[in-house]
Predict the 3D structure of the following.
Amino acid sequence: MAIAADAGTHAGREGAMADAPGIELRQISIADLIECIEKGVKDFTRSSKYGMFFGAFYAIGGALILWLAFYTGYFYLAYPLIMGFALLAPFGAAGTYEISRRLEAAEPLTWSSVFGAVWGRTGRDLSWLALVSLFTFIIWMDVAVFVYLIFYGAGLSSLSEIFANVFTTPYGLAFLLVGNGIGAVIALCVFSFTAVSPPLVVDRDVDFVTAMVTSVRAVIANPRTMLAWMVVIGMDLAVSFVTFHVALVVLFPILGHTTWHLYRKLIV
């Protein structure tokens, strides 16, 4: 079912919704999501050297952030740093969108074509999208510090103390519940405006505000399917966390390719 974006042209369609001119939103199912994941895996297998490059770059960035947290003594920020770093993933995966676009169009893949096309066609608007997410990441970290200080202040001085208190006491479990609850709300907001906006600006000549609004409307129009996709991303992040980001070398490009195919399913 398509949700019309240009009311003048598509006023007769049931379920019309105002959006940017020339853009229509579809309603998709869980089966469509599964199909997109399968296509994402297929794209990765067809271009693994490119995908693993982007995955390794992102994984190394996450590992450096984790190391920095421990090196500077802010070990209690390791978890929110790792999870918050995922807020920047939609933009780090811009290369995978271009790869999927080229595979779909049967265009040749080269390093220069991938990097050149992404920057040449979307550099400015993609940068603005990244800046919005970076600002959200800063808010995320501010909230994480604030919640930690409210519960513990400077009372826990070592990683072992944090583990002992957080995972074995009712007070610690309340801290986890509040922290993760607030984090989930922030993550949902970021997910809403980045679900399809990065591949949209990679593929079409639209500004970043239009892309964000379109992404939010796509999520609202498909709450069950997009929530399922968010859960899949969360599961991948959990795997990444327990493997110290090593799994991201493969998972990151697959998520990026899948995001491209979701965009193609959601937006006409």
Remarks:
- Residues 1-19 have pLDDT under 50 and may be disordered.
